[in-house]
Amino acid sequence: MAEPxxxxxxxxxxxxxxxxxxxxxxxxDLGVHEHVVEQVEMALPGFVGLMAALLDxxxxxxxxxxxxxxxxxxxxxxxxxxxxxxxxxxREAADVLLIFAYGGMYxxxxxYDRETRSLERPAVWDDxxxxxxxxxxxxxxxxx
Length: 144
What we know:
Structural class: mainly alpha
Number of domains: 1
Number of strands: 2
Mean pLDDT: 91
Largest sheet: 2 strands, antiparallel
Strand order of the largest sheet: 1-2
Helix content: 55-70%
Shape: globular
Low-confidence stretches: none
Number of helices: 6
Radius of gyration: 17 Å
C-alpha cells in the first residue's frame, strides 16, 4: 500500500493532468488518482513512492517547493520536465502516470460503484462522444 503522502502527490498530478473544466469534475474530483495508485501498485509494488519522489525532487529543483504545494501551471511544468528527461526510466515513470490517469478518466472506472458492484455510464463518455463498448460491428464480420 502506498504511503498517504505519495497518494496525495499522485492526486496533485492527476489534478494538473485532468483539471475540472466548464463545471465538469476533473480527475482528482472523480478519484482517478486512486486508479493510478491501485494499478501502479498492482504492477510494481512500491513504484508509486518512486513516482512521488521524482515529482517532488523535480518540483524542488524547479520551484523549491514540494509538488503538491505547487499551483497547477507549475505542476504541469514538472510533469513536462519528467517527460523530457534524459533518462529513459524517468520518462517512462511520467508515461506511466499519464497512461493510468487518462485510463482511469476515460474508461468505465469512473462509473463503477465498488460498494454495489454496479456500473453506470461514465459522464465523460458523453462529453467525448463515446457511445460505449461495442459487441461487434456486422460490417466487419466474415460470412461463412
